[in-house]
Amino acid sequence: MTGAPQVLIQNPSPAATATPIVASRCIRAVNLIKEYHTPVGVKRVLDGISFEVAQGEKIGVFGSNGAGKSTLMKLIGGVETPTSGVIERGLTMSWPIGLAGGFAPTMSGLDAIRFIARLYGAPQGHAAEQVDDFAELGRYLQLPISTYSSGMRARLMFGLTLIANFECLLIDEVLSVGDQRFRKKCHEELFVKRADKAMILISHDQGIVREYCQQALVLKRGRGRVFDDLDLAISIYRTL
Amino acid sequence: MMLAIFGTPSQLTYWVMNTARLAAEVINGPMAVLTANTIDELRVRWAERGHKPVLFHADTPKRDLVELFLRIPGEAIVVIEALDEVVWFTRATRGLDPQTALRFATRSVCTLEDLLARSGVWSIDGGILDLSLVSFSDLLIDRLFSRSTPDECAEMRDKILAYNSDCLNVRQAVDKFVKVTLADRHERSVSGLFLQGDVAKAANVFEACFHHGVPRSMIWPPGVFVKMSDLSYLEGPIDLTGPARVLIGGHSLSLPRGLWRATVEISVSDNMSGNTILSDIFAEDRPVCAGVTSLPSKGTFSYEMEFECSDPYYPIIFRISTMEGAIEGALNLNHVQFQQIG
């Protein structure tokens, strides 16, 4: 049969209109507040932070020391809970890469690999190979993590991230540790091989943020504001 | 002979200069006008004229020239006309924009004011406009040429009255003089030549401080300050968001010599992340006073700054800068009040 294609117009059924709207796939933080109780009273570390990262988008996070960057990363990564506010995790999300911890120090590198592989349903043999390719720890993988240097630990943690195919990567200054070769490998894994992933990237490296991010969150004394204008965000950060 | 006439760049000054020259030429023959605002300029230009009799004029004398004339005896005239007259005249004759004209006018008024302390000075202001021409002629001759012979005095009076024929008083003579010298630019009603809005307000309060019995206090409204981001005049609050930078500057007016207190009133809003501002007062490209203020989250506040204005030749510039990058907050400069305290 030839001729113009027929366009069928159907009224939506009652059931269809009742279907809840599926939230767009993104990480969304809404009015996050984080307070800690200290001997001198309640300290508000984060105060009303809101931002959104959609699939494939990258946001840089700037702030001087004590501005709340790492606390924010812990909240987003689920390591800690906010005092109030909402975090909608519409994407599978890594733990904060660069954040030391999360594994018992008595665990070996291989134990950690097996644990993560099991958790994310990845073949263990392939996972170990993939991590070692990146981390180059060799036989050290059989030793407890507590015996690792900070550089070895950073390489392991980064390598473990590669096991799971996260849709959003939380990166906390990982690019500022290790030697030049390690940084180059990190850069390759993150920004070349995983260019299509969403990222929340804490970095003092303004060039990285300018090159790869579409927006920047600038934190100051616990408050935060998202800028689409990266030059403006960087100029603010430089004089914070 | 050097007949010295200091005066604001305004119509009354030029008319007085012209009239005084008419009289002086009876004794000295043709006299050139020599304009200088520094000793060096005076020295060079007088030498160029072979040290012949000149009518010397300065509208914004620098400190060295003022001090020279304060030290030496002799007759001199200081004409200080109302600020709006100076602004109008400088705009009409020199094409200055309103703010530049006001800046020039205040510099002139403040530097000339120092000369009023000189003995033998004849101070002239707008109050003389209603004097009859005959009375003014007699006064001029009496103040400047008292040693002249009766014949010379009579000739001087005749020349002055002849030049200002048909004029009954000084005001009419000045108006006629301006019509002749400015041709089609003399219309005082020409729109735009007078100051408007906040700049006019600033000029008015500025002028008031020169009147007898009025305390030396003035308020600079926000509209006379410049937003440094685009050099436009301030209108409403400034968004603090951005890198550390100079937010506000202005308004480059001279103040009379002395100790001053600046009271700055600001309103702050949405400043939840605690910004800090630096306020400073500049004169001659150097700070004469500076202070740091931590801004509260919101509200209206004031703070004071004391400084010395040692040379009115250099305009006072008040600035507000943020000391660190800001992600939020707004600042409104309500006004800056200047009060002389010594």
The radius of gyration over CA of chain A amounts to 21 Å
Largest interface (CB < 8 Å)? A-B, 17 and 12 residues
Main beta-sheet strand count, sense and barrel state of chain A:
6 strands, mixed
User: Averaging pLDDT over every residue of chain B, what do you get?
Assistant: 86
Tally of alpha and pi helices of chain A: 8
Bulk shape of chain B: elongated
In percent, how helical is the residue content of chain B? Answer: 25-40%
CATH fold title of the largest domain in chain B: Rossmann fold
Return the structural class of chain A: alpha/beta
Tell me the name of the CATH homologous superfamily of the largest domain in chain B. P-loop containing nucleotide triphosphate hydrolases
Apparent shape of chain A: globular
Structural class of chain B: alpha+beta
For the structure shown, list the relevant keywords:
heterodimer; A: alpha/beta; 8 helices; disordered N terminus; B: 342 residues; alpha+beta; Rossmann fold; six-stranded antiparallel beta sheet; elongated
Topology of helices and strands:
The complex is a heterodimer of chains A (240) and B (342).
Chain A: H1 14-18, E1 26-38, E2 41-54, E3 58-63, H2 69-77, E4 84-89, E5 93-97, H3 109-120, H4 124-135, H5 150-161, E6 168-172, H6 180-193, E7 198-202, H7 206-212, E8 215-220, E9 223-227, H8 230-238
Chain B: E1 2-7, H1 11-28, E2 32-35, H2 39-48, E3 54-58, H3 63-71, E4 76-79, H4 83-94, H5 98-113, E5 121-124, H6 133-144, H7 150-163, H8 170-182, H9 197-208, E6 217-220, E7 226-227, E8 232-233, E9 238-239, E10 246-253, E11 258-269, E12 276-283, E13 286-294, E14 299-309, E15 316-322, E16 330-340
